[in-house]
Amino acid sequence: MNLNQVTLPVTNMNEAVEFYQLLGFTLIVDTPHYARFECPEGSSSFSLSLETDAFNNGATIYFEHEDLEAWVAELTDKGVCFTQMPTLERYLWKEAVLHDPSGNQIKLYWAGENRLNPPWRVN
For the VOC domain, which residue ranges apply (predicted)? Predict the structure, then answer.
C-alpha cells in the first residue's frame, strides 16, 4: 500500500497555486477548482481543492528537505513568513512552521534516520 496524495482546502485557488509554486512544487493539474502538484523529489504529490464554505482544517502537511536551513533561508528571501524557524523538536525532527494563504499549517522538516527509525520505534 502507498499513500497517493493529500488534498488541502483553499479559499483562493490562484493565490494558493502561486504560493506552492514559490515553495518549489511543480503544478501538474490546474483547474479553477482543483490543482495538483508534484514534489521536487520522489514520487509524492498533493492537491488543492477550492472551498466556498468556511472551513477549519486541523491537519498539518509535512514536506521533508535534507538542507532545511538553506531552504528556509531561500524562502525567507522570497518573502515567505514563518511562525517558527528551524527548531530541533523533542521527537528529534528539525521543523520550521508556516501557513499557506488559506491558513493550512505546513511544516518543513528534516528528520533523517529518525523519520522512520526513532530511538523509541516499536519492533
Answer: 2-111
Q: How many CB atoms lie within 10 A of CB 46?
A: 18
Give the Cα separation of 33 and 49 in Å (integer): 6
Q: In a 3-state reduction of DSSP, which class is residue 51?
A: coil
Please count the structural domains in the chain. Answer: 1
Residues 6+ apart with CB under 8 A from 91: 114, 118
The x, y and z cell numbers of residue 31, run together, are: 483547474
pTM recorded for the entire structure? 0.92
Query: Is-contact 30 76, C-beta < 8 A?
Result: no
C-alpha 121/C-alpha 92 separation (Å) is: 13
- Structure confidence by residue, pLDDT tens digits, 3-28: 888 999 999 999 999 999 999 999 99
- Quick one: how far is CA 25 from the chain centroid? 10
* pLDDT, mean of residues 21-38: 97
The CA distance from 70 to 83, in Å, is 17
Domain-embedded: residue 53: yes
* 103-120 pLDDT, tens digit each: 999 999 999 999 999 999
